[in-house]
Amino acid sequence: MKFSVASLVAVAQVASAHYFFDSNVINGAAGRPFTYIRDFTRQTKYNPIKFSSNPAQDIRDNSFIDGDDIRCNQGAFKAAGNTDVLEVGAGGDVTVKLGVGARMEHPGPSLFYMSRAPGDDVKAYDGSGDWFKIGEEGVCNQGADFTRDAWCSWARDTLTATIPAGTPDGEYLLRFEHIGIHRSHVNQPEHYVSCVQVKVVGGGNGTPGPMVKLPGAYKDSDPYAKFSIYGGFKSFPMPGPAVWDGTSSSAGGQTPPKNEPETSPTPSAPETSPSPVPPKSEPETSPAPATGGDKGASPCTKCAPLYGRCGGRGFTGPTCCSQGTCRQSNPWYSQCL
Ligand SMILES: [Cu+2]
């Protein structure tokens, strides 16, 4: 029975305000899902990862930013042996794409990390070693809406990381992360992560760093986790370590956000300014989702799209349809038809 529910959920993966990375774009074409990206086991693939200190009803699939699932998503190590290793030249790009036609319609930064596999055997590596950051992007258009399209990744369906030319040859986990910060003002950033298994060739002899552990790189007391996007542009305190400069290791701490001219970090103190009042829940532009009956309905739902899932036992996503009518197929699955 557990398996039948899981497979129904797998079938029900649909475009959503939430998302997951499942394929690599190679020579302009997205490949088969989970070829080089480790598949993961969370019940609802597109669900975000949250802090264990967040209210229980807001946590999804028991995945925590301060737990092992923050490495490569829930249960991803189980898929390691069955995931191919993508060969990539140092200095080259790796692009990942969201599954099921989703787009990143949450404001927030994107970050890229690598961790070298012991013995250069990434298929046997659980990600418990040292991680370094190879890139990040935050605000690309300061004049745009800071709650939406000011962010580089807004409405995109791909992320691209460049392997630093100085990266030594070897096998690595390459971790892509997008963080939705629309609810950071209530200490609830949402992390979306996937790992690609890569083999770097033609590399250099740099010494990557600074190093962090996952979990460990993010804390619920970090400024990014308390940041408010409401009330106009503010310099965003990018979480995690400084981006590796591509040469030697540096004993640095937080990096100033490279996309923003201001360097003063946002204080982590709670905002007291009364104007404008941040929304208690996620701002909605689409019709308010029906919340009746579906205990634990997602605090950041839009209505489900046509053919999207809109209900069923254990479902915590949107229970309304932006197109079509929500029809029950069976007790575990309702769909917008
Ligand atoms: Cu969300």
UniProtKB/TrEMBL annotation:
> Where would I find the CBM1 domain in this sequence?
302-337
Q: Which GO terms describe its biological process?
A: cellulose catabolic process
Region ranges (Disordered): 244-298
Q: Where in the cell is it found?
A: Secreted
Family annotation (InterPro entries)? AA9, AA9_LPMO, CBD, CBD_sf
Mark out the compositionally biased spans (Polar residues). 246-257
Q: Which family does it belong to?
A: Belongs to the polysaccharide monooxygenase AA9 family.
Name listed for the protein in its UniProt record: lytic cellulose monooxygenase (C4-dehydrogenating)
The scientific name of the source species is Cephalotrichum gorgonifer
